[in-house]
Amino acid sequence: MEAVITGDIINSTQRAPTIWLPTLKSALGEWGSEPTDWELYRGDSFQLRLSNPLQLMDAAVWMKAAIRTHSGLDVRMGIGVGEISYRSERITESNGTAFIHSGEIFDQLAKMDQHIALKTPWPALDEEVNMTLRLALIPMDRWTTTSALTVLEVLKHPGLTQTELGSKLGIAQNAVSTRLSRAHLDAILQWKDYFPTKLLPYL
């Protein structure tokens, strides 16, 4: 079993690609190599393959934080878990149930009225995870650019103290604390880290 994320950038036409495209490529590059593991298409759309599906929420939260560092922008992601039956040197030319599930749930995002959703071979798991995702997205959809920047630094450097994070961001420790509190990061990280315990029994 592997995971595929199909996504696009919300409001991409309102900002020059030179502003957000490097951020998108950098975020995708944290999770694999182009074009085998990730690829851009149609300007603002992308696919990302994760050989370890237990990492899919880590990647999704990372992508969300990275894109929201740009004012007015956000990201939609349909996450599929399944098999990859045909592998090409380009991810957009590969195929399998992981791709099918990812595309199907991506197409349902508008109807579901949420920006991230999961589809696996197990409907009961999907129902539970997507319900908790809907709750987790309430604070994530409201991240400001400064909150997203701080969240992204925490994800990049999980071992740093708030004082050390403040030094990297050029702000005081209490400002870091305030940003992370407003982002509800503790709760989101607990939810993100709990997800693998739900998926693992199915793999």
Question: Helices, strands, pairings?
Answer:
Layout: E1 2-10, H1 17-29, E2 38-41, E3 45-50, H2 56-67, E4 74-82, H3 97-107, H4 109-112, E5 116-119, H5 123-140, H6 145-156, H7 162-169, H8 173-182, H9 185-199
Parallel strand pairs: 4-5
Antiparallel strand pairs: 1-3, 1-4, 2-3
Helix pairs in contact: 1-2, 2-6, 5-9, 6-8, 7-8
Written account of the structure:
This protein has 203 residues and is of the alpha+beta class. It has 9 helices and 5 strands. It starts with a strand and ends with a helix.
What's the overall geometry? globular
Low-confidence stretches: none
Integer average pLDDT: 96
Evaluate the radius of gyration.
17 Å
Concise overview:
This protein is of the alpha+beta class. It has helices at 17-29, 56-67, 97-107, 109-112, 123-140, 145-156, 162-169, 173-182, 185-199; strands spanning 2-10, 38-41, 45-50, 74-82, 116-119.
Features:
5-stranded mixed β-sheet; 9 helices
